[in-house]
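User: Predict the full complex structure for these chains.
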Amino acid sequence: MQQVIHVSHLGKMYGKTIAVDDLSFEVNEGEIFGMVGPNGAGKTTTIECLQGLRRPDQGEVCVLGLDPVRQEHSLRLVIGTQLQKAQLPDRLKVDEALDLFASFYPDPTPWPILLERLGLVEKKGAYISELSGGQQQRLFIALALINHPRLVFLDELTTGLDPQARHTIWDLVREIRAEGRTVFLTTHLMEEAEKLCDRVMIVDHGRVVALDTPSALVRSLGAESRVLFICEGAFDPQVLKAISAVSRVEQDGQRVIVYGRAPQPGQPPLIADVANALSAQRIAFTDIRMEQASLEDVFLQLTGRAIRD
Amino acid sequence: MQSFWKLAVLECKLYFRFPIMALFTLALPLMILILLGSIFGNEPSPLYGGYGSVDVSVPAYAAMIIAISAFISLPITLANYRERGILRRFRATPVSPAAVLGAQLVMQFLMTLLGMALLIVAGKLVYGLRFEGNALSVLAAFSLSCLSFFAFGMILAGLIPSVRLASIVGNVLLQPMIYLSGATIPLEVMSPRMREFIRFIPLTHVVTLLRGLWVGDVWSEHQTELIVLSAILVVCSIVAVKVFRWE
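Assistant: Here is the predicted structure of the two-chain assembly.
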């Protein structure tokens, strides 16, 4: 597989504050690569170094075979960018913005096609300030795609959007991948990283703390599965503790939570064992469901729960 | 080049779509001219060397418009662009920084020129404005004055991070300057000591140059103004390039 981004031992300091500390990773062609981390973990600095907006203090960065600092202009021609907290003038119209950005590149996509694809045809003559949050983000995606980029950077694309708008954006990002483009995104939503990304990199204090597919990250945590059910009658927790996969049982009024190992491939899930044991003892139960560890659990375990700013 | 012209056209459109700056630069000087004309008329007067009050005010107000564009309009527009990440967004594209800033300067120049044109049209139609100079000379002096003052405005735009601060600093510089330069209060009503003092105010040289060329002075009579304005242009351009920041 070809590498689109290659970063080794990247370091960047602001005065005495270390923003990025010895960061190394690679991004493969055609994948959706997610970077997640708490505030101040060094995400923005990393993305700025990749785009040539900032000069690294240490290490090597190679993006699409180019050095982002020395070959800044060539790089900007072949990447697409959507920046967090970067806007356009309020009174600029949608079609004017597209026409302007098209003029920055030698062979742009005809922008009426992009308008159609991103569902903005009716908003063609609207001021940017009149668009909803989701429409604005779609416009910014259109601007990021106008030069047929091989690599697209999407920085906190769905922050502040409602669930409908978020799902529309996710579909768009998958379409971008389907066209063979590589996507590098950052997000605060673990659900987004888990559902959308092929691989996720968790960074903290300027370092990589984990990098793998979302499911491998969840597995590596060795997190327990949880089975929850409601039991209106009395029952003896020993019945469940006898199951070999079960580690502990908690009772909170009528609600029972059974913790156990995630099953190995080929074995029945914990919920089946629990339901069988309860049925065998003729214990009545309702609302049974299983919860699996999510990327959010992994994230919190690796980066801690303390609030940061 | 294509991007540059597109940017310049869009900047002009944006200027009129959010017309607060237009109110300052275009409407306010025009209103003052009409107010003043309706009080004093434009009869020739010995105070103004045989010209009327409107005749001397039109080139003086043109200087005022140049100062408003340079100290208020230009720094506030760019501070707003920086504050909202608009400059950052442009920086992430291959467009040249010179195109982005150049388009802004072209727009400010055209709007300043439009402000002066409105003064001339109103003066001519309402008060029979007299003009005895060479139109090309006046335009050349006007352009040089714009370039010098815009270069200073670019220093402000480079150093000032927010719109709030830009409007405070701009007004603190602008207000004394337009009263102590002959741009609003005519030079003729000032005491000799006062006129000695205001030679140190840069805008005074713009007023003197434009008023002189307006009534037919030749360039050689205005060497001091030319030297001062050229020096401001060179020094401020160098400093502006050094201090400019995208974010």
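The longest helix of chain A spans residues 163-178.
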